[in-house]
TrEMBL record:
<protein>
    <submittedName>
        <fullName>Extracellular solute-binding protein</fullName>
    </submittedName>
</protein>
<keyword id="KW-0732">Signal</keyword>
<feature type="signal peptide">
    <location>
        <begin position="1"/>
        <end position="25"/>
    </location>
</feature>
<keyword id="KW-0813">Transport</keyword>
<comment type="similarity">
    <text>Belongs to the bacterial solute-binding protein 1 family.</text>
</comment>
<dbReference type="Pfam" id="PF01547">
    <property type="entry name" value="SBP_bac_1"/>
</dbReference>
<dbReference type="InterPro" id="IPR006059">
    <property type="entry name" value="SBP"/>
</dbReference>
Amino acid sequence: MRPTRPVRAAALVGLAAVLAACAPAQTDGASSGADEMEGTLRVWLFSEVDQEPKEAVVDEAVAEFEDAHDGVTVDVQYIPVDTRAERFRAAFNDPSSAPDVAEYGNTDLAGYVEAGGFLDVTEDLADWEGHADIAEDVAATARVGDGTYGVPWFLGARALYYRTDVFDDLGLEPPETLEEVVEAGRTVREEDPDMLGVSTGGAYTYGFLPFVWAHGGEIAEEDGGTYTSAIASDEAKEGLELYSRILSDEVCPPQTCAEMGGNDSVQNFVAGNAAMTIGGNFNLKAVQESDIADDAAVVPLPGTEPGSIAPAFAGGNNLGVLAGTDKRTLSVAFMRLLAGKEYQRRMYDAMGNLPTFTDVREEIAAEDEEIAPFIETIDAGTRFVPATGAWAAIDAEGVLPTMVQRVASGDADVDEAAEEASASLDEAFAGE
């Protein structure tokens, strides 16, 4: 691959209430002041499709930790991502069966904190020199309110994949603005109606949000811990309008694209059916192993002005300490070791997980040009979803995808769809 670098209100409230009802018992572990320095340290990490490389790195960290702590055994369990909600819910309500340290998705954190499931480790990280090398926007993915509930372990970011052969044949240059992304997609489809100009979908939340953020829009605004919707602002609607121009017969027909999420969007590109897509660093291997590998390249998704980069969603997973632990000191120490620079670098080498430390990413970008556009995107500044337990319900209900799909299908104009989504967001925030 040749890289190019330019340099439902009831359901919503109900789910939020379920999360809030998961507060753990407050009789054991950290709440009672216990801080054992021996015994078994229990760790939950997510299982992967191919997790042997991950296990190998974790095993190295475990061996180092056990060598440094006499009388301590680290028991690592790999749990399925799909059943994490049930597993964590049970753990929060029964500290005796809970792990001491756990991997969690950063968008899940606010609900977990509202359920009382994770420790605020702000003071535990205060003397950790390396923590300062995590950029503020990335560090914020482990925060809720004034508390810090873990360490960002790895990141995922999305950028613009494109076909170099298609662009060369049409005399196109890599787009330098979001407007040019749309226009390039239109040009491609005019010349080849069987090809999607840009493969991206109405259900692709993290493909859509950069358009909102690049235009100065936001999902919501926060004031004193309270969120109110901002998705119907003029800036947000400008981004929605531009994205909706992609979901058209001229670029990516609604009958094909309106229902697509991220996986299907990228798969069209990998299969050779699209000239462009918005894909993550986690899709890079699939592209490299595809038939179009020699004709594919990546640049940061541009913003509204030449030379700018659209803010990307800071997806990823964190490591945190469970509130019910009776081994706080050991738990924090293991979290810091596994989430530290050395093991983040090893995890990148093993799994391709982008490190959360700025200096480690700089090393990787200098060594690997194919990953550089994603790192450049992260370094330009990322955004995150509202840090509230209501987000889990909002996401499950598909509030934002529904808004996009209504516009794409012609069921509503931008103003109407945005106002409806805004009302749903505010109702969810009020019910959190």
